[in-house]
Each structure stands twice: as C-alpha cells, then as structure tokens.
Amino acid sequence: MQRVVLRSSLKVRGQTRAFSAGLSNHKNTSYNNDKTPFDFTVENYKRVNAILAKYPTHYKQAALLPLLDLAQRQNDNWLPLSAMNKIAEIVGIVPMRVYEVATFYTMFHREPVGKYFIQLCGTTPCMACGSEEIKKTIMDELHIGDG
After folding, report:
1. Which of 8, 85, 142, 143 has the fewest beta carbons under 10 Å from its own?
2. How far apart are CA 106 and CA 123, in angstroms?
3. Model's pTM, two decimal places?
4. What is the pLDDT of residues 54-63, one digit of tens each?
C-alpha cells in the first residue's frame, strides 16, 4: 500500500498556516536528528559546486533554495535535520538560517512523505473557486483522508 499525504493550508493576514503542529517545530526522532547521517552523493556534489558557481563567493547563502531542493530530491522527497546542517556548513551560515528557509516554504518537507504528495490551496479565493469540492473529489476517488 502506498502512502499518500493530503495537506491543506490556510492563508490568514498574510501568513500561511498549515494544519499540522509538526510543520513549525522539530522533534528528534530515531530517523531524523542531528546524528542522522547525510551527505551529498559524488554526483550531487558536482551539482552543489555548479549551483554555488552561479553566485558570488561572498553570497553563497543565496544558493539555499536550490541546495535544499537538491538535498530533498536525494533523500526521497524530504529534508532531514542533518541535510539542513550540511547545507549550512556548505554555505557558511548558522543552521538556524537554513531551518528558517526550510520551514517558510511549503515545498520543503521536514518529515517523510508518501510517494505521492498532494497539496491543495485552502485560501479564501481558492475556496471561492471550488477547492473544497476538488479536495472532496480527490479524497473520495483515492480513498484517502486529510493528513
């Protein structure tokens, strides 16, 4: 059985709020802590160097988004804490800056997700255009629930 995750979010007063407490803070687990091994593959280190080459030397932190994406792709579509620490080391910034970026963007998953990850907009304009009906149809057709 394949795991499918359906996550809704709501935009209130300019802030996006996801309906999951696990998205806003980190809790160490056996599979996701600062001791969990992570390093880029040899092939991905070549990509890291190519990404860093696009930015001035003293602005390596500008490469955070593509590096986070690369780490997530390498790690089955989620970012462990150790991957974020490795990226902080590579670009020469404190890990908290990487965590801030990873928690801000909903495209980065800090917990393992299923093979298929479905995410829908839950803002008022999207609801007015039928997002709730779309969500219900997806859930009914795939026999899945929220979360």
Report:
1. 143
2. 14
3. 0.71
4. 999 999 999 9
